[in-house]
Design brief:
The structure holds two protein chains of two kinds. Chain A has 19 helices and 15 strands. Chain A is mainly alpha-helical. The two termini of chain A are about 55 Å apart. Classes of the chains: A mainly alpha, B alpha+beta. The complex binds zinc ion (ZN) (7 copies).
Chain lengths: ~575, ~160
């Protein structure tokens, strides 16, 4: 079993990393072990750990399918259905397509009411032959053709082969709807199956049809999805209701089966969606607000200017009339100040440098932006670290391990603790990254939860930094020159220990986030107070102040963040100053 | 192109032959372009369109009859499924339910049927659709009749 590692490639290890936190692997070792760094008593457990990992892989809750697998499964379903219903292969295929490839659904409906299923799908009981005369009129081109140059579906409506070719070609060009094609006669609903396509269409259309059929088997099936990686042609068959949505494709892309974004456990799909949208919209959004709206000088609601005129009338009930440029009352404006499209009061003030462009508003926007930037930078840093660690892992697997094995005279199978350490780093970087998206959306006023979260995140991050450091820097020494056996053994114990400790920290973090930080009890609070988490944003933004003093005006606790535009509003506001979105 | 031309020519001959058969529809092919047709249809009886004569314009694609013709009202009409300004028609057989076995003649018949049985749930004319959906049949009928009188009937005097 141990020698398996030698032949393992990067894509295999990718699929392992995402299984680390499945319910079965969670070993409650007790948190105390993590606190005590001198106690690295894990070397004996190594083989057990890898057994867990390997058995985990065998019972993973999804299967990666390539095109051959997909065709095989589709063919098996079609063949077995046609046997059960004693119907043709073509009919079985049409039935399965109609019921989104759910074999059980076809059975259920068919045996409940065969007649209505036949009607809905367009399957006629028995073949009606075309009228038995030498020549027939085609219902599309209205020409008379010899009977031998015409074809019909099971309904017997005759069309010439050239019109069929055009009819099928038009349908195939229109997209996957061609899989539900019916007889061209408007009064007839006879289904056109693949046998007709193969008999009448040009080769290109036959191929397109067959391609749509294959795609439909994945896309119309509730249990399967294509891997979203660009150019990847694998599909994932997922066991519904089986826990974690994280899956790993054979192309090495890990993603969430539910939302098809990259794997993001323990953060929820909705948080990820919001975060990704925010990352794409943030800069534009902020700039837009700064550039296009100003608060009404009287009622402070944001006013958008969308016409050239500088004469602004605030929306009812305020109706205050003011100048867009200097924000002065319009009563003082008019011909004297330069008319409707300029303001010489503003120009003069600007020249003198007296006029300070809506200082407060900028300040507020800056706070929001700073808060977002804080989380974004950490999210992005972990993302980069993960990419680097992945590359490094690959490098270790493909060359370094062999080198190390030679220099230190150790069989490669004895060096897998290094691979495990790197796998742990890669996985933890992913989790840590997403906890920053989580933290951004964790409401400011939930103090206990925030403290607990920041404590867990801080511990986990500190553990990960130690592990990453050890796996990256200290390893280098042993790649350079042979060291005494004892020293290398110490390195092994240390790295394996750090791996295990970090795994525990992250298990705690993942569990806590997945349970919505529910178990914030009095004990936890004591815990968190003794930690000096570096990620407390209030301490970062008000240096010199105690992080917990919520009375200072600088503290973020005095603001709430608009859900829509993220503007930091004073707690006295009930609606957002920027976009008027109501506070929740 | 050749196939569509041949097919349209068949329809043309059929129209000539059938001229007296369907008194409600008069299809006319453009003198110089067989892909441009117009039609005069009679408003169906017992509807607010009764007594009116409505002109339709057909633009026929080269892939006809595999693809449907584009049809619109040239005569102003107040109907939930006809755009009041452009005369565009919302009718399933002119879109996804098209069959190449339909003809220009059968399209006209389908439009006459649509005039008699509006579908207020897919409105192109919201005012008209809203009247019908809110159950104000009289309001809808009087508007429709007014426009029929204004636009679709020969002026007196
Ligand atoms: Zn034909
Ligand atoms: Zn038929
Ligand atoms: Zn893939
Ligand atoms: Zn997701
Ligand atoms: Zn105002
Ligand atoms: Zn001014
Ligand atoms: Zn807002």
């Amino acid at each position: 079993m141990e020698s398996d590692y030698d032949t393992q490639d990067a894509s295999d290890t990718e699929s392992m990393e995402d299984d680390f936190y499945s319910e079965e692997t969670v070993v409650r070792d007790g948190e105390d072990e993590g606190e005590d760094e001198g106690k690295y008593g894990f070397s004996d457990n190594e083989s057990d750990d890898s057994d867990v990992i390997v058995s985990e892989r065998l019972q993973q809750n999804y299967t990666v399918l390539d095109e051959t697998d997909i065709r095989q499964r589709q063919e098996d379903d079609i063949r077995s259905l046609s046997m059960v219903l004693s119907t043709s292969r073509v009919h079985a295929c049409l039935l399965l397509r109609h019921f989104n490839w759910s074999v059980s659904k076809v059975h259920e409906e068919w045996f409940a009411d065969e007649e209505s299923v036949r009607r809905a799908v367009g399957l006629l009981g028995k073949q009606v032959e075309m009228p038995n005369v030498a020549e027939l009129l085609c219902g599309i081109c209205f020409e008379v053709h010899p009977r031998t140059a015409m074809s019909s579906a099971a309904c017997g409506h005759p069309f010439c082969d050239s019109c069929w070719r055009g009819y099928i070609g038009t349908a195939v060009t229109n997209g996957p709807g061609c899989l539900m094609l019916r007889c061209p006669d408007p009064s007839c609903s006879a289904a056109i199956g693949q046998d007709m396509i193969d008999m009448l269409a040009i080769d290109e259309d036959k191929q397109k049809y067959s391609h749509y059929l294959l795609r439909s088997f994945i896309e119309n099936n509730r249990k399967t999805k294509w891997c979203p990686a660009p150019g990847c042609e694998f599909a994932i068959d997922f066991v519904m209701g089986s826990g974690s949505y994280d899956v790993s494709c054979n192309c090495s892309h890990s993603f969430c089966w539910n939302c098809t974004e990259e794997a993001h456990r323990p953060v929820e799909c909705s948080t990820v969606a919001k975060w990704i949208l925010k990352n794409s919209a943030e800069s534009e959004n902020m700039n837009w607000i700064l550039a296009n709206s100003k608060p009404c000088p009287k009622c402070k609601r944001p006013i958008e200017k969308n016409q050239g005129c500088m004469h602004i009338t605030c929306t009812p009930p305020c109706k205050h009339e003011f100048c867009w440029l200097c924000l002065g009352s319009w009563i003082e404006h008019g011909e004297r100040t330069g008319g409707f499209y300029a303001c010489n009061r503003y120009e003069a003030a600007k020249e003198e440098g007296v006029y300070d462009e809506s200082e407060r508003r900028r300040e507020m926007a800056k706070n929001s932006l700073e808060r977002y930037t804080h989380y974004y930078e950490r999210w992005a840093t972990n993302q980069r670290s993960r990419q680097k660690a992945l590359a490094q892992l690959h490098n270790i697997q493909t060359e370094k391990l062999e080198k190390l094995s030679k220099i230190q005279c150790q069989p490669e199978s004895q060096l897998k603790f290094i691979i495990e350490a790197m796998l742990q780093v890669v996985e933890c970087r992913r989790v840590l990254k997403w906890t920053y998206a989580y933290g951004y959306y964790l409401p400011e006023h939930e103090h206990a939860k925030r403290q607990f979260f920041e404590y867990l995140q801080g511990e986990a991050e500190a553990g990960l930094e130690r592990l990453h450091q050890c796996a990256e820097k200290e390893l280098r020494v042993y790649l350079e020159a042979e060291v005494p056996m004892k020293e290398f053994a110490d390195f092994r114990v240390k790295l394996a220990g750090l791996t295990s400790v970090t795994r525990n920290y992250f298990q705690n973090l993942v569990q806590a986030l997945e349970s919505g930080l529910e178990d914030v009890g009095p004990n936890r609070q004591t815990n968190s107070s003794k930690s000096s988490s570096s990620k407390n944003i209030s301490s970062k933004n008000s240096p010199g102040n105690s992080p917990k003093s919520s009375t200072t005006t600088n503290n973020f606790d005095n603001y709430w963040y608009c859900e829509r535009c993220t503007f930091a509003n004073p707690s006295s506001n009930q609606a957002c100053e920027m976009c008027e979105h109501r506070r929740h | 192109m050749q196939a569509s031309r041949a097919r349209l020519f068949k329809e043309y001959k059929e129209v000539q032959r059938e001229k007296s058969v369907d008194p409600d529809i008069q299809l006319v092919c453009d003198d110089s372009n067989i892909f441009k047709w117009t039609a005069l249809i009679k408003g169906p009886s017992e509807t607010p369109y009764e007594g009116g004569v409505f002109q339709l314009a057909f633009a026929i694609p080269e892939q006809y009859p595999l693809l449907p013709p584009q049809v619109r009202f040239l005569t102003k009409i107040f109907h939930p499924n006809v755009h009041f300004k452009t005369g565009e028609i919302c009718l399933d057989i002119l879109k996804n339910a098209w069959s190449p076995a339909w003809t220009l003649q059968s399209v006209c018949r389908a439009i006459i049927a649509l005039m008699a049985h509006p579908e207020p749930d897919s409105p192109l004319n919201c005012d008209s659709g809203n009247l019908l959906r809110s159950g104000d049949i009289r309001g809808y009928q009087s508007m429709a009749r007014m426009y029929t009188r204004l636009a679709a009937m020969p002026k007196k005097g």
